[in-house]
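Record type: ASSEMBLY
Status: queued
Input:
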Amino acid sequence: MGQAVALFVTCLVDALFPATGIATVRLLEHLGVPVTFPAAQTCCGQPGYNSGYRRAARPVAEHFLDTFRDAPVIVSPSGSCVAMIRHEYPRLFADDPDRHAQALAIAARTWELTEYLVDGLGVIDLGLRLPEPHTFAVHDACHGLRLLGLGRQARALLDALENARVVPLEDSDECCGFGGLFSVKMPDLSAAMLHKKIERIRASQAATIVTGDVSCMMHINGGLARRGLAPRVRHIAEVLADGLPERTTHAQPGR
Amino acid sequence: MRSQAAKFVAAARRALADPPLQDAVKRATDTAARKRDLAMFAHGRDHGEALRQQAAAARRRALSRLPELLEQAEAHLTANGATVLWAADAAEVCAHVLDIAARHHVRRVTKSKSMVSEEVGLNDALAEAGIEVLETDLGEYIIQLAGEPPSHIVTPVIHKSKEAIRDLFVQRLGMPPTDDAPTMARFARGHLRAAFLSSDMGISGGNFIIAETGTLCLVTNEGNGRMVTALPRVHVALVGIEKVVATLEEYVLLTQVLPRSATGQAMAVYTHMINGPRRAGEPDGPEALYVVLVDNGRSAIYGTSYAEVLGCIRCGACINACPIYEATGGHAYGWVYPGPIGAVLTPLLTDLKDASALPHASSLCGKCKEVCPVDIDLPRMLLDLRYDLVEAGHMPWLWDAGMRAWSTATRSPRLFHSAARAAQIGQGLLPQGRKVPLGPLGGWSASRELPRFARQSFRAWWAARNQEEDRHDQS
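Status: finished
Output:
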């Protein structure tokens, strides 16, 4: 089944959270989708772009365009990076007709993972079964929610995951306060938002909070850890991959 | 009003350490945001969203013809008997108002809420000229008593608890102690009623001006707007030049989204449509009506990529939805307009460098755009302002240097992955379970554990897996 997919794993997943990337590969391969990994890939350019450093972000975005130039379909386990590619690249290259055309073409071929599964491949039931019953709630990552219109895809995939029960998370659409370098520039304000998110998570019945961006996961789990609490946020790819039949064939990477 | 936006970071930190402020702002914005959602989506999400898009289109249409509509509005206002005055900046607004006051021998002024008057520091100018000014919007009345600026454009006293207001009334007005809000409001109302009756001039803002009819429109909830515009001999309305709409139909559309977005009401309690001063044979209304059309930085925005922000109808929905505002309250923003709209307007209407922290006071979560009744892309403008700050050289050199290094490393796969490897090895030097004492990660790690670089990166896993598969294939 399916056309080959070029994985844009994102810089955070590559260096900090490889398990999310591995889960993404296993899910796609489970559906018979061949996965390639263009090895020259680095970052989408968001840290520079979102801080106002467009001149610095531009060559990074150009590098992305060149790296994925020939990929017919690009899939990434990050709503935020896909939003950067889809919405900001065309703006970044507004003054360069060639790059702009290239950016629009790439934008049309780039998918966030859950979006690709549900809307691209048209699959909701991946035939997955968790070894044991487990309760989940979804935290909607801002850029996926508001720039890509994500949310229903992850919920549908979880609903179809056997042994998974989805319960509500109050204010699930409210930001966790990460905001990339915002959390470094204004750490106190970011922490106030994080605090509210953690209170909501503690009040939730869910054992695990599922999200589509490892950046929120990193931020919230970092806050939980600093409070002496166990990490509770996981990326949707990892949660779904837990339901794959052959769990033992791929070793988890060392941390 | 002099901007204190340069002190945003310190002011925000103070606000975070002020539990009564946190409680008051959180409670008020949560309620307002919930009521807004209920009102906007009372007939379903699709209907609310369609209304929002129609209102947005109406504002864009009006802005695209702004110069022409302003001339039309001036002609029709004048034909209705109003005097139209143009003011380029704050000084000119104050000069016009003082001039009108002198001409009509005005000693006492009552005001209904006007953010433009806050922009131009009108109350101070009137006081200096020996004219008594009384704010009559209950919230504005309270903060005038307290000697504070408003902290929200719709609910200016959002930062104060009922108890704080009680104490203020007891101390300043001699109110018999009570915790009953209606009793407190009745007490204030008694004071205000006397002021209305002895006022020589009323000053109001204006929510819209309808160009085709020359109508000044105001929406209010307390009735003070009607008193201020109808009882005194003279009425002066201060209206930003962006507030013009073309037709009655467009006005009707906007009056549907404004109260729903501001206070969760399908309609404001009072909707005023003022078509000139008292005419011969009419029993009430002012002898003279002046409409001051205020630029004060707006025409400099018109024609730039920020022009869309002039579509703002000052409902405050973005403020109520903003998690940053919830954490800081309004005073931290340092000028008239707080929250996301303030983070865009303050740098544009005052000084970019001075307000340089405001465009960065956002996680870019996008909620402000989502709730905006006229769909202004505030996150996009925050990004553009950040770009302007970089290009104007207003960023700290450390950021400039860091971003240059990031850019160089990130466009080269080899450098990028070596840097990640170095970070993986170097992270052993960072403390775990506590704050990093120095450097840019200090603030971050104060309340979050730092993430750890993985021993085996994804690309290393991928390479190893492919090697293994190659070996399988060969054997």
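Annotation: The longest strand of chain A covers residues 129-138.
Annotation: Chain A touches chain B through 71 residues (CB under 8 Å).
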